[in-house]
């Protein structure tokens, strides 16, 4: 999803990272569908960032599969009643081998696009695999006063570097609306989760932005606290909003020839509200905008083609979806398309234009009929601004 060098309007996502996979033309399905490990964008925190520690430092910090241990404890400030907390001092902390043992019975895998709340481009698409967090919670024999689960990862033994997130216990114990479970993830695209992606174990919350999917997991804290205590809440963010649906471009020519059709392509992030269609528009650059139309609803929108599922699921062994993957049937085909919480690609051919300066835009229409960036246009709950791209026709 590489973005070529081209001018963007002020309402575009100026801090949008550059995705890496680009189709050769609008008729080609970009490959691979799942992002290669080296092509994931990275927004890791820490000084030093944990995945940049030496191998010896990672072993000492418990950031290898051989040395990883997870403590699951009661919150000392707002205690939950637990019969058997999992602690290092008590010799009951969960190790990687025990996690895999749980996986023999409970492991799940599902596709999910990983997206940062405050960036206008997904960081990568993955097939994530692990054990539902609830299976580990039940090991502690919770009895009462459990309202929320918060969790954090390795932070260089520096309290100021701690990055934590949280979920209501109901979301951990139950999967509403046919969502996959919240998992302790140890595999990505069929391979062990590497350190840069948060290995050996991280949390992955299917419907959430990336800050909920804490990397380098070390602690799960069960609490009677009634509200979120996420690090991101302190940074003036909406910590409870699920993924939004939005579209953006991949290939739009910076310069096109007058009298020739213009091929364009892009991707759409399919959020919790699903995706009905993708639309595109191109109009003269200085077209007056009505003051009461901040989201370009009166632009000359036309439908683009949402591309079908790929024949080969790149970045996976043999290009095939493993059996028993959430959202896929026994033959490895999506049960629905587009799939929520993933990416899809789109393509369109614009009509020939006269010489001049133009602005190209793309948007989504979700399954409820809401046009991007509605129904949640505010940046605090995730980026969904309509991207504007300048095109010169000569």
From TrEMBL:
<protein>
    <recommendedName>
        <fullName>Oxidoreductase molybdopterin-binding domain-containing protein</fullName>
    </recommendedName>
</protein>
<dbReference type="GO" id="GO:0043546">
    <property type="term" value="F:molybdopterin cofactor binding"/>
</dbReference>
<feature type="region of interest" description="Disordered">
    <location>
        <begin position="1"/>
        <end position="50"/>
    </location>
</feature>
<feature type="compositionally biased region" description="Basic and acidic residues">
    <location>
        <begin position="8"/>
        <end position="18"/>
    </location>
</feature>
<dbReference type="InterPro" id="IPR000572">
    <property type="entry name" value="OxRdtase_Mopterin-bd_dom"/>
</dbReference>
<dbReference type="Pfam" id="PF00174">
    <property type="entry name" value="Oxidored_molyb"/>
</dbReference>
<dbReference type="GO" id="GO:0008482">
    <property type="term" value="F:sulfite oxidase activity"/>
</dbReference>
<dbReference type="GO" id="GO:0006790">
    <property type="term" value="P:sulfur compound metabolic process"/>
</dbReference>
<feature type="domain" description="Oxidoreductase molybdopterin-binding">
    <location>
        <begin position="124"/>
        <end position="224"/>
    </location>
</feature>
<dbReference type="InterPro" id="IPR036374">
    <property type="entry name" value="OxRdtase_Mopterin-bd_sf"/>
</dbReference>
<dbReference type="GO" id="GO:0020037">
    <property type="term" value="F:heme binding"/>
</dbReference>
<dbReference type="InterPro" id="IPR008335">
    <property type="entry name" value="Mopterin_OxRdtase_euk"/>
</dbReference>
């Amino acid at each position: 999803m590489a973005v070529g060098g081209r001018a963007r309007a002020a309402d575009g996502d100026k801090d949008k990272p550059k995705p890496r996979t680009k189709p050769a033309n609008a008729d080609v399905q970009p490959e691979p569908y799942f992002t290669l490990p080296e092509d994931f964008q990275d927004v890791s925190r820490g000084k030093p960032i944990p995945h940049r520690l030496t191998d010896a430092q990672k072993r000492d910090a418990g950031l290898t599969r051989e040395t990883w241990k997870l403590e699951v404890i009661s919150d000392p400030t707002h205690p939950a009643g637990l019969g058997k907390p999992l602690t290092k001092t008590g010799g009951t902390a969960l190790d990687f081998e025990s996690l895999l043992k749980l996986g023999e019975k409970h492991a799940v895998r599902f596709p999910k696009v990983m997206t940062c709340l405050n960036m206008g481009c997904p960081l990568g698409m993955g097939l994530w695999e692990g054990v539902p967090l609830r299976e580990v919670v039940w090991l502690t024999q919770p009895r009462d006063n459990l309202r929320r689960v918060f969790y954090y990862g390795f932070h260089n033994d520096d309290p100021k570097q701690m990055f934590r997130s949280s979920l209501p216990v109901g979301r951990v114990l139950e999967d509403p609306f046919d969502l996959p479970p919240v998992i302790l993830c140890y595999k990505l695209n069929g391979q062990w989760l590497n350190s840069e992606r948060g290995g050996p174990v991280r949390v992955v919350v299917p419907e959430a932005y990336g800050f909920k999917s804490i990397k380098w997991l070390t602690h799960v804290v069960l609490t009677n606290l009634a509200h979120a205590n996420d690090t991101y809440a302190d940074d003036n963010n909406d910590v409870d909003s699920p993924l939004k649906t939005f579209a953006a471009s991949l290939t739009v020519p910076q310069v096109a020839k007058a009298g020739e059709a213009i091929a364009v392509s892009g991707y759409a992030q399919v959020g919790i509200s699903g995706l009905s269609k993708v639309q595109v528009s191109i109009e003269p650059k200085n077209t007056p905008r009505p003051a009461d139309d901040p989201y370009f609803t009166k632009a000359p929108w036309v439908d683009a083609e949402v591309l079908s599922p790929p024949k080969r699921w790149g970045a996976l062994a043999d290009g095939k979806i493993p059996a028993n993957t959430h959202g896929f049937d026994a033959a490895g085909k999506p049960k629905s398309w587009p799939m929520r919480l993933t990416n899809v690609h789109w393509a369109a051919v614009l009509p020939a234009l006269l010489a001049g300066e133009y602005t190209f835009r793309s948007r989504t229409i979700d399954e409820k009929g809401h046009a991007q960036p509605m129904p949640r246009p505010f940046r605090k709950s995730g980026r969904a601004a309509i991207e504007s791209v300048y095109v010169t026709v000569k």
